[in-house]
Design a protein that fits this description.
Layout: H1 2-9, H2 21-27, H3 30-41, H4 47-71, H5 82-105
Subcellular location: Membrane
Transmembrane segments: 15-36, 48-66, 86-106
Membrane topology: Multi-pass membrane protein
Length: 116
């Protein structure tokens, strides 16, 4: 989050549009959490999990694309500066690696953490 806030609040940038990626941070794990909860009850197939992965990847790709599109808007007057774009993308890498780490650490299927 620090990278995203720096990309918005530094005096050289002063634009809060990159902060919209926080919405994607909130929305990205939700389909997977819902599908895991629902797939525990259904024993037929994995179609819900596949749809959840598709929706999650859409959120992840959108969060990387948003700052790039904002920085590449009309070249004479871009919405955000390239430095803000780079800081937001760095924040994306950190946040999504944290979310991935959460799912790997607390996976209740075959993890050694779940034996407690």
């Amino acid at each position: 989050m620090t990278f995203v806030i720096l990309g918005c609040a530094l005096p050289a940038y002063k634009v809060w549009w990159p902060f919209l990626v926080v919405l994607f941070y909130i929305l990205s794990p939700l389909p997977t959490l819902i599908a895991r909860r629902y797939s525990e009850n259904a024993t037929s197939n994995n179609q819900y999990m596949e749809l959840a992965i598709f929706l999650t990847m859409g959120c992840v790709i959108s969060s990387f694309a948003l700052p790039i599109v904002l920085s590449r808007s009309p070249e004479s007057n871009p919405t955000i500066k390239p430095g803000a774009c780079y800081l937001t993308i760095a924040g994306n890498f950190v946040m999504y690696s944290t979310i991935l780490g959460f799912f790997l650490a607390f996976d209740h299927d075959e993890s050694e953490y779940s034996m407690w």
